[in-house]
Specification:
With 382 residues, the chain is α/β, with parallel strands linked by helices. Helices cover 42% and strands 13% of the residues. It starts with 8 loop residues before the first helix and ends with a strand.
Length: 382
């Protein structure tokens, strides 16, 4: 299977599975407990049907929109995700370049494998930083100040990761950051020589946004679950969120909102946007899919705050359904991580091109010439 054989996100997943050692692939692909919520995230889109108009004169269409004050050429964002150099030697650099080429938002994680400054210097595309609140308050302040100095456009506070979900695939494989070879997985690493050689002989794996504060993840191998459970601040509350918003002083989002009550609280503290997200099903298994929660949250706070639908997005039609139900834009992580793992920047660009074409094609078949025309009149619950 080659990159040219990839025609949808599932194809990229298959190619990534062939090219990655199984512990690394399972880190991307896996979720919490029985992985029920991960499956629901995508399946939820099947419960809503699109209603097209015809003879609408769709020779020229505009897929662009404004998200958090910046123009995006697609109503699609690339969610921040951790440890990207574990999936491909170029990591966040590849994603940043691809996002810049397509004119879309992308984000980097507190646990990114390239620094805030390196990514900022690489692209003028709209970019956000995803903050995990650590127990070390100096580290939190350092990351915020570095993002200010580097000119990041927004800060997204992740609020659904007070502790780690139980990621059983990672428990079975022993996956750590940095990745380490174990007896049970040695054969998988040995039979993926391209990945293994890049990892062994490439630049040292590190998490530079943590430099000077913690060694875990850079100099000291640790599981993600242990890292979250020992390093993150379980006392984080709404006062914490309000204080971080004030310290940041710029465009501010909360990532991980799933209830109407929390959406209203986000409005009250002055957040600019919320991401309806369950962390890709990696935290609370058995929770609702973001798309299932979208309607009631839009009805409660739509027009008062921007609403990003995050999770389960695999098709251009999923993006259009999200917008029709009232979201400002849709977002996803695995939709580009599979492509990154499969072929680096070239893979991410191909994935974005496929999604762009799917959005354009579906808009024409729907009879809309701009994403602003999408409304609930265009969808029906099954």
């Amino acid at each position: 299977m080659r990159l040219s054989d990839c025609h949808n996100i599932h194809d990229f997943r298959q190619l990534a599975k062939r090219r990655l050692p199984w512990p690394v692939f399972d880190y991307i692909d896996g979720a919490a407990d029985d992985e029920l919520t991960k499956g629901r995230n995508t399946a939820a889109f099947d419960e809503v049907d699109l209603v097209p108009d015809v003879l609408a004169g769709v020779e020229r269409i505009d897929t662009g929109c404004t998200i958090m004050g910046r123009r995006s050429e697609l109503p699609l964002m690339l969610s921040p995700t951790a440890l990207q150099r574990a999936f491909h030697r170029d990591g966040e650099r590849a994603v940043a370049r691809a996002a810049s080429k397509f004119g879309v938002w992308f984000g980097i994680s507190s646990l990114a494998t390239h620094s805030i400054e390196d990514i900022a210097a690489l692209t003028d595309a709209p970019k956000l930083f995803q903050l995990y609140v650590h127990k070390d308050k100096r580290l939190n302040a350092s990351m915020i100040e570095r993002c200010k100095a580097a000119g990041f456009d927004a800060l997204a506070l992740t609020v659904d990761t007070i502790v780690s979900g139980k990621r059983e695939r990672c428990l079975r494989s022993g996956f750590t950051t940095p990745p380490r070879f174990s007896a049970s997985s040695l054969w998988s690493y040995a039979t993926r020589p391209r990945w293994t050689l890049d990892y062994v002989f490439g630049p040292k794996f590190r998490l530079p946004n943590l430099d000077g504060h913690v060694s875990e993840g850079s100099g000291k191998a640790v599981s993600i679950q242990d890292y979250f459970n020992t390093m993150l601040d379980t006392g984080m509350d709404w006062d914490t969120a309000a204080r971080i918003r004030q310290d940041w002083g710029g465009t501010f989002a909360l990532k991980g909102i799933m209830s109407v009550a929390d959406a209203r609280r986000a409005v009250e503290i002055g957040a600019d946007a919320i991401w309806i997200s369950n962390h890709g099903g990696r935290q609370l298994d058995g929770s609702r899919a973001p798309f299932d929660q979208l309607e009631e949250i839009v009805d409660a706070v739509g027009g008062e705050i921007e609403i990003i639908l995050d999770g389960g997005v695999r098709r251009g039609t999923h993006v259009l359904k999200s917008l029709a139900m009232g979201a400002t834009a849709a977002s996803g992580g695995r939709l580009y991580l599979y492509a990154l793992a499969a072929a680096g920047q070239e893979g991410v660009e191909r994935a974005l091109q496929i999604l762009k074409e799917e959005i354009e094609r579906a808009m024409r078949l729907m009879g809309v010439i701009s994403v602003q025309q999408l409304s609930r009149e265009r969808v029906r619950l099954r």
